[in-house]
Amino acid sequence: MSGTRAFPIVIAAPSGAGKTSLAQELVRRHEHVVFSISVTTRAPRTGERDGVDYYFVPEAEFTRLAESGELVEWAVVHGCRYGTLGSEVTRALDAGQTVVLDIDLQGARQVRQRLPEAVLTFVLPPTGTELIRRLESRATESAAERAVRLNTAASELTAVNEFDYVVVNDDFETAVATLEAIITAESCRSSRLGGLGQAAADMAAELRQTVQRSH
Predict the structure, then answer these.
(1) What is the pTM assigned to this prediction?
(2) Cα–Cα distance between 98 and 74 in angstroms, integer?
(3) What pLDDT, in 10s, does the model give residues 137-171?
(4) Which end is more exposed in the chain, N or C (fewer Cβ atoms within 10 Å of the end residue's Cβ)?
(5) How far from 68 is each of 22, 43, 45, 77, 82, CA to CA, in Å?
(6) 8 A C-beta contact, residue 121 and residue 181
(7) Phi, psi dihedrals of residue 113, rounded to the nearest 5°
(8) Among 1, 2, 18, which residue's Cα sits nearest to residue 176?
């Protein structure tokens, strides 16, 4: 066999469910798992670096990227635009790497259409109460902004059945291990194994030849 064909894995979740922390830990632990760096029109937060955390671009440049078809997905999230560059995904896949797309529900739906080989994973908080606690403890938004995020989360939760896998982020280590198991399982999917049919046929021929020689 010629090996497993690389694939993108989408990790989506309501704000506060912990998807970004999980994605970052997954990438940190595995050399073959890499981020697709998103493009956004929002301003950098404290500590964020252009070209590392996001590509921060003005509205006009984002519009150009979207209209030219250079984005495999994009969405408006809390008043700012976010998108994934097709070139980022292709470069990683060509290098045999599993590409992590840390995106929202709108983006995940577009990826499903544009990249049917992608694996869609939805991260759930253990309870609604815990999601509220996590958002409040971040202290990065006003009460009005948190209300917007909670309303958005309520809508996103109804789409959970559109995803291939669900990971409940109650215990962080368990959630990371579940994501690792998903990647391992998908790497063994027969449709991703190059040359599988020929390899199986060659094995079968070898077995038949052995049987024939024994008679």
Answers:
(1) 0.83
(2) 20
(3) 877 778 888 888 888 888 899 999 999 999 999 99
(4) C
(5) 32, 23, 28, 21, 15
(6) no
(7) -80, -45
(8) 18
What amino acid is encoded at 192 in this protein?
A: R
The end-to-end CA distance of the chain, in Å, is 30
Domains of the chain by start residue, with CATH: 3-205 (3.40.50.300)
Q: What is the DSSP letter of 45?
A: P
Residue 11: CB partners within 8 Å, gap ≥ 6?
A: 19, 22, 23, 100, 101, 102, 103, 121, 123, 179
Give the three-class secondary structure for 172: helix
**Is 86 in contact with 70 (CB distance < 8 Å)?**
yes
Structure tokens at 147: 């209300």
> Cα–Cα distance between 165 and 184 in angstroms, integer?
13
**Whose structure tokens read 């670096």?**
49
